[in-house]
Structure formats: structure tokens, C-alpha cells
Inverse folding.
């Protein structure tokens, strides 16, 4: 087992951790640990909410969650010798839950507090608890489903430079100021109650590791929220960034300053319920190396990666397609979100044939290793999106050809907590 | 070999085919053939351009293509007993090129005539010719690449009812009238020279099978263009709709009236160069069945499908990610197209390390079995898209870890025709 | 379509073919065609029996088959410039049945005429006819099973030199003379009615292409039977030698002289019923190249190959294991055949839970893409063999966990013909 | 983490463990732990040698190993309510090395002490140490190779009844008495220095858990060795019996009495060097259930299993074939071992083109996830075996088509210890 360079205590509050939590991106957060190229090391992480969710049957904790202090992350880990322009080569050797905390949660956020991809259809908070059975998971709130986890860190990134941070703040502020372009995918029914377009720096509840209090006060005005993925990878939520993957991360500051967390036991493409993966605290074992001047050598300015080859395999899928017309018949221009939305809604309708509530179906799409693809992006005005559900995640026969045998089972009895 | 119910002659013009071509969606096109549930049958098709492209080294035919008469399709095939509300079960038993026409083409359209996903970066017409070697293909215009085709029909659909057709026309007209919402993914640099938002009915160059001339004249005003995918599946361009796939198609008119064509020897997710697959004329063998009242039974209002299990398999990929910020730093709101664009641009830059021109790299992404996923759709304001390139399509070592061995080969010498 | 260099006529007898059939290995058979390195070409083949089996419901043709004239093969194809010590690089570009003969057959041979792997358990002739539905197949004699074919040539080889032929004859004669070592896997119950140990040259029914009659008479005394695989690959019956595979074949005579045939639409590992694949006449498209002095360069003295990547994929299997103890409790020494036998017998027993007769189950194991592995070869005295049956080849739920739902269906009603 | 029901101490001798070790099969070994149907529990195990091998660069420990006390196993675990005729359903939830012992070993045994599949070619002891990097492994003794482990227990079985034990002893004794049938695969060159045909009960070094000394003395005369797999599964060495697999084990005594151990981080089909997997101590998490009267219900008398779907995936292989003729030209009758031997020898020769010693190549075949198949078992006298090596386990280009670039690297410098 590699040496642990960042430790957490899941029984303590985020403010009282053995190593200090980070919940914003800022270049000046002092390194919590330092490693050399070639080193293998373990990083422990809280779940992204910092422990706000319990293993019980009520969704009140989802409904009432404090969102400002998220995500609760571990780092920065400084790599000796890494300089701006280099690439870090980060191997995700392995990751998992803590031995005595083998459960995770998925939440549907309330429309008034967080929302989600289909929040207009699913406005109320819901929660499902998942138990981990080694490589598999199942949930008392979603019966007759079990699947192997495609576990990954939702967040893995390097720290931005001051210049890059400024750029982030400016471009996101500009979006907020110039207003929405096409937000119909999210909230097409009301037209009024818009979710935020972007999240500007939020000085409340800022945690910046070991930075001293005075510095924090200043930094908090500029430190970027961790919600969106950006140049540094960050909250990319790529389900295939799993065990055995290699990531090439751009370096923007001396040492690179890796920050990571938001571990997912499993997630479908899109992570559609927002708190949509199976969320958990846990550990990840990393190994790092440095490619000097790698950004120029590779000719890329985003992170790139090579997925590992131990992903769960499936040979039978049911595939739903959607395109850029809302279910009310409004035509949008090449809007992939609406395509995704329509495909998801059809999948949810299909799964409810088997006795699931729509909330359960929504959660299955968000957590199981569902494949969502941009099938066609040039056939104006409709972008075609496919959502493919692996049949083998169900313990019963979910194939359309045997649909007539589906009837009569009520899988909603073990309903989602409210 | 199943009986051929629709025949084409690739040496004749689209107007002079053995069975009459269709290039618009309209309910009243007379059935060209009739089949019974359970029947297996063969449909021949022209390439989507109706033979406008030659196997040569000039892209003039791409540059000067007449776009109004596209796509050139085969059908309608009527299924006896199918009624509105039913689902057709269509098995794609097999498909392929004609025995003496074992080549296909990929085009980058000129910005002034068709464009494509990255048309602002690639404004000039280009063409690549691909030869078919049984299950594999290679191109004299893109050396050192070969891969097995994931062949599929770009277009497979049922005919709309009058009501549905009217709905299509109205919603697309409304989009054109209310103007662009967020078109930056396509043409973010100019802001002026916008491509069309949608394609309203175009009465010129209309082909409606055996419909009599007078009726055509009237129908042409309303018949829908075949570019976008819609409720009837249509131009869905789903690369996984390949050999052995089963499609469940909603029925809107008596007999369902299947229309198909636009065969692709291979395509990457997105079909990004627009004429982006490896396009070919050819044949497909189908089998149909009917599920009475299937739309209600299944609870879906789009087509759904089950992909076959003989897709080419790959175990090593290089994955690029993008999100909703243009390369000029403009922040957009959850725009997946921009994520796709950024990931593609990075992939193109990466591949040019190996001696390819950017046009060649663009064509590789568009034709090889590239996987493009909506990785995260809830992390506002950035939607995260990944584009995964299978390493085994290259005859040389394309792995980032051996990049230092890449130098010195100029694969652009066999350049794309101009 | 590549040029056809070897043509057959399925309506004519083997003796009256457009190009003359070969059914023995001999260096002096005149080349039927000549190709150059780099050439693509088509070879047509009869089914291995030369047309002795009909698409009907009687197994009499299997029972009464003449075995001496088998296999009926196409070739030799001479590759210009190939010399002993070279390797031929043979690409299997594609293969398939003839367009108007889309069916094949599987036979269980009578114990008195051919036998099979489990002939003591299945002593009577049986037959199943399979219809081809594009990439898939199904059989009226084995209901509720359908799967994509992993099609391949059972036989593909180069011609032996005189020296090598002599070596084959000597070593096989020596086996016949010194008698059985351990034949219990085949015929352990009787002890008397032993099948042949090997098949020495059989001068009757010899076909040697265009060789003149006098020469044939002499050659027939030495020409080797085509049943066993040998140094030249030959009847290797490797199910993964499918579309898109590349084979490296050792060259023993000038021109290499490729002979091929015995096409299989599908086969399980082992081809256990002997005529155990889904046998068919058809065509294969090949491309050849030459590696000068390749045998020394590669350091190998058998054929090697690279399987294509378009094999049908399966993610759920049921795996049976067997080891070197007969079902009567007799212990053998590291005998893999007995392990294979036991695993097959258990699989057959398992499948008969679902209403199949044991003959049907035997045929499923022999034809579907079953994986049979040498799991452990060092744990004396027992060699462990696993036989893995892909669940998705069944149209119903075959999973052990839902076995209680299996009852009551009699799938044997559509019994195997007799 | 499930409760640990069997604990080991890798720093203590096998005789001084926290829970008592078992190294023979016997029905009367007292249960070390008892679990209920539905329970999840952890079992710790020593490596199979009980700690005789060190992480160093000398193979002396392999050469001098004491073989009589092997394998060192954990159990029996009794399942409440299980009775003879039932099936145990055992889920392998997860398994792995101990956190601070992330290394394993592979040995080539000396011909005089253990031997191996190719012992006549590799008569001297060798050793390779493998380090574990999360899901991956690499070895300082076999450079430029790394791959994800397909980890599994080499041994997992239920305890035999007295009757079954008697049957084992009788049939194995009968083999020893009647002498060899066909042992050429193992020792074909000498004809004299035969390895044992089977291993009868060996009263020395017997460990039977908590059985009292007197009882042990009697039981040791009959307790069966753990080398061969038998009706109870036992030492089946099935590489695919990995994480997420479900095993159905026949029950022969009250409680079933599960015994397990011999953990492998990875193994190729066949485990050919004998100590041929990457051997390690570690833990496995199991869950059990009982199917009453399952043996009759299933109609099987061996263990069956369903492999998990998280096996490492590979898309490019190099496949070697062998058949029943020794490299000296001696023809055997359907001997799969000789086919396996020939394919392995060719693979070893091929890999030595890349600078590996033959010992290193032998070890690669034995440890990497190599696929070995019984391709054809009916083509007398030759059984055809294929050995498929996944290309991606090498860090360099191992493809035959780029073989000319292989030269000049000496990977044998980091030779195997002696």
C-alpha cells in the first residue's frame, strides 16, 4: 500500500480534518504534501458533500444540503520539478471506499436547491443508498438491479495559475452578465425560475487548506468554484477515468498542485441527477511522472487520458435516441442537451414498464454504466444523442422482446426515501 | 439472399432508376414495395448524393455538389397490417457495398456549400477515397490507417403522418423565424455569415417515388427535408445501428412505409465532417415484424434499438475532453457542441504530431469508430464531452507514451485532393 | 469484389467442377491459379462433403455419408516468388455463403461411420439445418437459439514438400502400428470397437486437381488425408480464424500452394460433433503477401495468426469444468480430452433443463461460439478444462439464478431429424 | 468490509497461525468458522507455499521448496443448513493482496523438485518477483511488460464426504498402479525419469486445522492431496474465476465446509510453469447462499460458475497453434498437452525475438492473461490447441508486422534469479 500523503477522518467535520480540506481552485493554496516523479502515494478523500448525507431512508439531508461548501477535496499535492507547460502523467492505480464504509448515495436534488438535469420533471429531493458488495453494488431503494462499479474520481485536476483563474472568473462572469442563450434544456417549462447560469466565486464557506486566515479572506473573493470542469480537468465526471487509467494533466503552477476527490463508485454518462453518481468517501492510489514541456510536445491544451482496460463489459444494450426538439414540440438548434433529455425521458418511460417509479428509473440512468453518445452533430437543426442501457444490470429480463412478461411486479414498493 | 424489393442502378441518374428514388418525407408517397410481417427482403440504395462523387483525386465534386436533391433514398416499403401506434421491429440482417463498387468517400464540405462541424477551421472542400478490403478499409488519402467498418444505414425511418409532417414544418419554421439562440458552436468567429438554422421544405429537385407529377407539385411544398433525425428515426446517423441490430420504429401511417439509405461503411460518433462517414451505395437485408399497439406498450415515442454484438472491438483508446468554452475563451452555457468541438480540435492537434495534415486528422475522427460521449451534463456552466480514438486503427504506435518516436514521418504527402 | 481465381458449381458433382477439386495434401498438384504478392482474390469452395447433405429433415445423408473423398477443397493457389522458408501473409478479408444458398448443416455422425467427440453417448446420426439471417443464424431443429456467426475456413494451408509429406506418413503410420496409448476419451465404454487411430493415405476417391491420371495413381498412395491439422495449418478448425484475421503460413514448396475450404458459418471451440460446425459452401476473399525467409525471422515452425476484431462479443457466460476422470470414475493422467468430455456432458445435462434433447444440446455446444479453455495443465493427475456457454445465444433466460422459471417448455418437439 | 472469519499472520509459520491451516482434503476437519446463508465474510490466506518464498533475486527458495506441506489453505467454513446434494452459491465479491505485501512471485520449479509443463526444456529453478501497482503488475525480472491482474483463488472447494474421499484415493491409486498410458507430453525425451503419475496421501507435514492430534494421525493416511482439481472444484486454477464471479459448488458433507486459498494476482490459461501464476497471500470476500437439492435441480455433478464482467479486455492478440506431434516428430493420438506444448514453444521462440530469454518468455505465458483454447478435438490424430498472447501486455510494439523494428534490445539483462 503506498504511503498516505493526505488523510481524512470521516467522523470529523470538514473543518477538523487531519489534513486540511480544499473546496475552491486557487494557485496559492499551500501544498499539503510533496511527491517526486515516480512516486506512488495514497490520497484519502471525504465524499463531495463533506459528510452531509446519512445511510438512512429519508431524503431530507439531500433536500437541505448546504451547497456552498462543496466540493470537499484533498490536496494540493505538489510534484517536485513540475513547471508550467509540463504535463503530469498521473496513473490511477486503484481506488475504493474505506473498509468500514462500504456504502454510497445518490441524490435527486430539489429544484430549489441544486436541481439536476431533469429537474422540471423531478423537482423533489430523493435519495438512494447503495451497498457495496466487493466489485458490485445494489440498493435497497432500487430493487433487482446490481452491477459492477466503474469507480473513478469525479474530480482530478491541477491548480490554475493566477492568470488562468482570472480568465475563468472573467468568462463566467461574462456569461452571467450577458444572460442566457438557450437554457431550455434545463427549465423549458417555466421560463422564469432559472437556475444560475454559472457560479461566481462565493466567499462563504471557503476552505483553502493551510492558507492563513487573512490570505483566505482575500483569496476567497477570487477562488473558483469546483463545479465545472475546465482546462485543469477538475470536475470532469468522466466515468471511464477509472482504475488503471493514465491521465496527462497540464501544469499551470510550480509543482502542478494536484487536487482530487468526489469519488464515485459508479456513474452513468452524464451523471444526470446531479448528485448523480454513487457518491462515497474513500481512497485513491496514484503514481505521478512529469513530461517536461509536454503541452507543446503533445500539442494539446486540455487534459487527455487513456482509460484502463478493466471496465465492466456488456454485450446487450437497449438504446434510446433523442434530438433537439422538446417533448412539447419546440424546435431548438443543435441542442444536444435536449437530445439527451428526450432519450433519458424515453428510457425512464421504458423502465417504468417493469414496476419502477420514474424516480428510480432516473437514478438507474444516473448511476449504472450507461453509455451516452453524441451520435450525430451535423444534421441541422437536430443533434442526435443516444443513451444505451446495459441489460445485464437488471436481475430480470429487461429485453424489449420479452416485455410481455414484465407485468405485475411492483418494484416501487421499496420506494426512494422522501 | 432475400428477394430484392427495391433496386437501383448506380450507372443511371437518380431520375432514371429501376425503382423510383425518394428524397423527402411525405405520407402520400406510394409504396414501392409491400412486405408481410416475418419477411426478409433486400433493399438497394444509391449513395446519399445520388452518384455525384467520383473515385478520383479532386475535391471539386464535393465543392460543387448540388445539395437540394439529397438524400437519395429507397422506399417506401409498406408492411402489411401495420397501423399507426404500432411498432415495426426491423432487423438489420446484413448490409454492404455492391460487389463491383468496393469504395466509398468522405468529404469536407466547403463553408459556402454545406459546411460541417468545424467549418470555420476547415472552410475548403476536401475529399478522401476509401477502398474496402472485405471487412476492412483504407485510403490512399490517409495513409497508415486501416480499420474494420462498423457499417450502418445513416437513414432508416418510417413515414410521417400528415399531422406529424405539419408539426415538423411548424416547429422548424418557428426556429427559423425566432432566430438563433446559441449558434456559437458552428460559426462563433464571424457572427455574421450564419449557416441556415433549419432547412424548410425546398420544392426544387424533389423526388417522391411514384407519386404523379401533379401530386408532387403540391406535396413538394410540404415534404420535409431528410437532413435531421426526427420522431421517425430518419437520419439518425447512429454508428452502432449496424449489422445484427434490431430497431423498433413507431408507425405513423398505414403500412409504416419504411424509407432507408445513406449507407455508411464506417463513421465516428458525430459524423463531424458532415459528409463525414465513409459514404457508399449498396444493399441492406432487412426483416420486419409488427408489435400491435407497440408505442403504448413500450411507453416510448422515439425509435429505440438494440445494437448487434459484432461491432469492432478496441481495448486501447486515447481520450480527449472538451467543455463549453470556445478556444477564444468565450464561456457558453452547457453547450455540448462546444465541448465536442474542443475535444475534436485537441484530437486533431494530437494526431498532427504523426505527420498528418489537420484535414486528414479531421477525416480520421469523422470516419473511424471514434466514441464521443456526454460525460457530464450537470456541472454548470460546462458540459463535458469526451472523444476517444481507438489506437488500433493506426498501423503505427500512436500511444502518447511513445510519442517521442513519432517524428519525421510526413503522412501528408498523400494529401487530400483539392 | 476481388477476381475469382477458383470457381465451384454447387449443382455439379465434385468431379465436374469448373475448377478441379483437391481432397488430399500433395506437393505436385498443379496450381489452379497464380497470384502475385499484394493481390486480392476470391476463392469459391464446396462444402467439405462436396454436396452430400440436403436441406431436409432426415439424417440419412449424414448416416450414409461417404467419408473417403473428404474434404473437398479449392486450390492450390500459387503465390509468385514464394520459396521454402518464407512465410505467406494471408489476410482473410471476408467470407460467406453463396447468395442463394443461405443455409448450412451440422451432423452428429454415426458411431460406425465417422463418430464424434462423444460418440459413445451419441451413437446415432443426427442432423440440424441452420438458416442464415445475414450475420445471424437459427435452426428449425434447435428452437429458441440464434447467434451471430464467427465464420471461418476450417481448412487453410500451404502444400507440404515431398520430405514433409513423407514425415507425416511415417509418423502417423508409426502411431497406427504401435497402437493406442490412451484412447479412453473417445471410446472408453466398449474397449473393442475402436475408431481409427489415424487415417493413412487412402487411394480411393482421390481428387488431385489437374494432375494427370497416371500421376494421380502414384501420388494417391502417398497423398495425405486432410483430416488432421499439421505444420501447414490445414484443418486447424480454429473458430477465431475469422473475418479480418491475418495468418502467417510457412512455405514448403515453390509458390506456397494455398489450399482452402471447409467453410464454417459458426463453430464452438472443439467442433465436438465432428461435422460439428455449421458447414456450408461459399466464398472467401483473400489477400497475400510474402515475408522472405520469414520462418527463421519469426522463429516459429507452425502457422501463427492474428484474429480479427469483429468477433461476436458476449459478456455473460455459464462455465462448466471437467478434469481427467471419466464419469465412471476412472482416473487418467493429465488427459485434457476427458476434461473436455466431462465439461461438455455437464453442459449438456444443464441445457436439457430447458427442454432440449441431449442431441440438441450437443449440437448447440458444437456450433455456438462456445469457449473451451485449458485452464490448468500442471495439477497432476488432472488437467482442468472449462467450457463456457454464452448466455445471449438463447432467446430465453438461461441463467442458473432463474432456473426455476425454466420448466415446462418442450423444445425437443422440433427434434433432430433421424 | 465484511467480518474476517479466518485470519492469517504472514510473519508466523504455517503451524502458528491465528486460525489453523489446512493442507489436505478430509471431511472431518472441524469447521474453523460458521456462516449463515446470505452472509458476507472475509477469508485471509497465506500464499500456497506458506511463506517459503522471499522477495529477492535468488531462485534458491524455489529450488529447495518443501512440497509435501502444500497447499496452505484457509477453512473449512461451514454454511448453516447446507446438506449433501445442495449447491452452495459462492460469490467472489473481491480479493486482493494484503496492503503491505503488494508483491507476488512466479517460479519455474526444478525438474527434480516439482517440475512444470515444459520441465524438460526448463529443468532449472527460476523466479520472478512481481510488484503490484494497484490493478496492474510489473516485474523487475521481466522488463517492459505490465498488465492488469485477473486475480482469483487458485483453490476454492467444498469438503469431500468419506465416500468421495475413498473414491478419490482408489482411482488415483489405480492410476499409479496400472502405470502410464501416454505421458509423453510431460517427459517425452527421457522415458525414464518419470514424474509421479499422481500424489497419494502423504502423511508427512499434514495440517488439518483444529483436528486433535490423534485424529490427525489417522486421517493423514487418507486425506487427499490438494494438487488436482476434483468434484469439489478445489485446485481448478481457472483464471476467469475472478472478482465478481459466482460459483455453484456441490455439497458433500453437512455445512459444505468451504476451503480456499492459493491466491493468484494473475495467471495465463494453463498456469504452465506450475508455480505459474503470480502467487500471493491475501484476502477474499465471499458471500454464500444455498440451493436446496441443487445438484439434482441443475443436473450437474461438477462445480459450475459465471465469470464476472470486469476481466481485463484485449483486442489484439498473437495466436500460436500446436497439435499432437512432438517437436521430434512423434505422432500422438489426440493429445492436447502436446498441442499446448508446441504452441507454447512457438510462442516462447517468438517472444525471444524481442530480447527476452526463453525463461522470461515461459514466465510471461504463465502469468499474463493468455488464452489457451481447445480449438479442435475431433480431427484425429491431432488435437489443435491455440495459445493467444495479448499484445497490450507489452510496453513496446510486439506485432509481427513490425518485427523488423524489434532488434537489438536485450531484455534478458535483468535476468531471472538463479
Amino acid at each position: 500500500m503506498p504511503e498516505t500523503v493526505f488523510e481524512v477522518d470521516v467522523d470529523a467535520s470538514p473543518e477538523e480534518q487531519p489534513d486540511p480540506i480544499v473546496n475552491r481552485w486557487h494557485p496559492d493554496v499551500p501544498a499539503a504534501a510533496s511527491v517526486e516523479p515516480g512516486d506512488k502515494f495514497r490520497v484519502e478523500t471525504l465524499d463531495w458533500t463533506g459528510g452531509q448525507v446519512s445511510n438512512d431512508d429519508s431524503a431530507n439531508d439531500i433536500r437541505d444540503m448546504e451547497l456552498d461548501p462543496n466540493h470537499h477535496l484533498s490536496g494540493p499535492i505538489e510534484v517536485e520539478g513540475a513547471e508550467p507547460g509540463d504535463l503530469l502523467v498521473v496513473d490511477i492505480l486503484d481506488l475504493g471506499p474505506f473498509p468500514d464504509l462500504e456504502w454510497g448515495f445518490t441524490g435527486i436534488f430539489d429544484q430549489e436547491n441544486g436541481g439536476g438535469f431533469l429537474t422540471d420533471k423531478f423537482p423533489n429531493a430523493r435519495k438512494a443508498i447503495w451497498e457495496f458488495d466487493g466489485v458490485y453494488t445494489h440498493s435497497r431503494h432500487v430493487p433487482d438491479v446490481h452491477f459492477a462499479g466503474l469507480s473513478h474520481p469525479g474530480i482530478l485536476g491541477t491548480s490554475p495559475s493566477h492568470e488562468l483563474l482570472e480568465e475563468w472568473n472573467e468568462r463566467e462572469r461574462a456569461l452571467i452578465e450577458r444572460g442566457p442563450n438557450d437554457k431550455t434544456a434545463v427549465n423549458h417549462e417555466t421560463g422564469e425560475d432559472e437556475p444560475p447560469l454559472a457560479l461566481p466565486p462565493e466567499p462563504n464557506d471557503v476552505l483553502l487548506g493551510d492558507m492563513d486566515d487573512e490570505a483566505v479572506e482575500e483569496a476567497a473573493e477570487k477562488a473558483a468554484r469546483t463545479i465545472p470542469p475546465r482546462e485543469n480537468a477538475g470536475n470532469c465526471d468522466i466515468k471511464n477515468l477509472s482504475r488503471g487509467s493514465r491521465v496527462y494533466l497540464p501544469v499551470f503552477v510550480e509543482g502542478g498542485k494536484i487536487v482530487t476527490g468526489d469519488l464515485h463508485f459508479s456513474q452513468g454518462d452524464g451523471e444526470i441527477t446531479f448528485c448523480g453518481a454513487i457518491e462515497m468517501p474513500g481512497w485513491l492510489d496514484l503514481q505521478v511522472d512529469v513530461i517536461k514541456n509536454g503541452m507543446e510536445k503533445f500539442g494539446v491544451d486540455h487534459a487527455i487520458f487513456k482509460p484502463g482496460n478493466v471496465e465492466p463489459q456488456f454485450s446487450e444494450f437497449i438504446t434510446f435516441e433523442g434530438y433537439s426538439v422538446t417533448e412539447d414540440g419546440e424546435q431548438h438548434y443543435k441542442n444536444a442537451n435536449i437530445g439527451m433529455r428526450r432519450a433519458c425521458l424515453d428510457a425512464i418511460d421504458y423502465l417504468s414498464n417493469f414496476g419502477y417509479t420514474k424516480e428510480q428509473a432516473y437514478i438507474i440512468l444516473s448511476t449504472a454504466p450507461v453509455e451516452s453518445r453524441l451520435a450525430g452533430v451535423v444534421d441541422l437543426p437536430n443533434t442526435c444523442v443516444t443513451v444505451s442501457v446495459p441489460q445485464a444490470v437488471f436481475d430480470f429480463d429487461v429485453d424489449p422482446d420479452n416485455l410481455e412478461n414484465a407485468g405485475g411486479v411492483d418494484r416501487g414498493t421499496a420506494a426512494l426515501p422522501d
Q: What stands out?
A: Chain A has a mean pLDDT of 93. The interface with chain D takes residues 1, 40, 91-94, 99-100, 102, 133-136, 148, 243-244, 285, 287, 308-314, 392 of chain A (CB under 8 Å).
